[in-house]
Amino acid sequence: LSEKRSLQENNDTTLLDVNVDYGQNNDGYSPIRIQFQTDLLERRRGENWDAALDNVESILSEVGQIWRKHISVTPVTGMGIPFPPADNCFGLHDNFQPFNNSSIADADLVVIVTAEDTLTDQFNNTIQCSAGFLAFSGACVTDQFDRPVIGMMNICLDLFATIINSDFSTAVILHELAHTLVMSPYLFTLFRDENGEPRTPRPLKIQNTSCWDGSTK
Fold first, then answer.
1. Which element (helix H / strand E) includes 65?
2. For all residues of the chain together, what is the average pLDDT?
3. Nearest to residue 8, comparing CAs of 98, 124, 125?
4. pTM beyond 0.85
5. What backbone phi and psi angles, to 5 degrees, belong to 191?
């Protein structure tokens, strides 16, 4: 396998908002607590993917610690990250037991990790691993300040399991988590300045623009 990343961001523009409790007197920062939920990933066990799944889960723990060293946030308090009012995350959190229609505590970002060959969103758009991707990811839910609090990451086991270089495997998942955290054109539009004011005027307007390669998006 050529060690050229074949990755994709989940470009769902319909990010949901939830209200998150950050406490009345909490004005400090702490290293981000990323909670990877792998219940749906574990469904692939018994399909000759056990070694690959063990590798993915080991890398997730390592990658979480790497980002924790570099990102500090105002920590979520109270009941934690609430269950979203609707599912715009490929139907994942509707089938996700830990939320249990309530919330997840002790986390600042929840990432639902899966290993599906095909995922279909609420608009019947599909992303397929057969297109040659190693993985794809993105943010699904933001808080009242536009910070991602729930995201998804899908590992394409057919290709991911063929990676021999462990550093490259780690780099793939590190890259994917960056899409969930910040590296997304849709999150870029939600950036705020040092005073907490949106840098892009609201309400957001979707419009076509010309790209450097001559295409229009």
1. helix 50-70
2. 82
3. 125
4. no
5. -60, 145
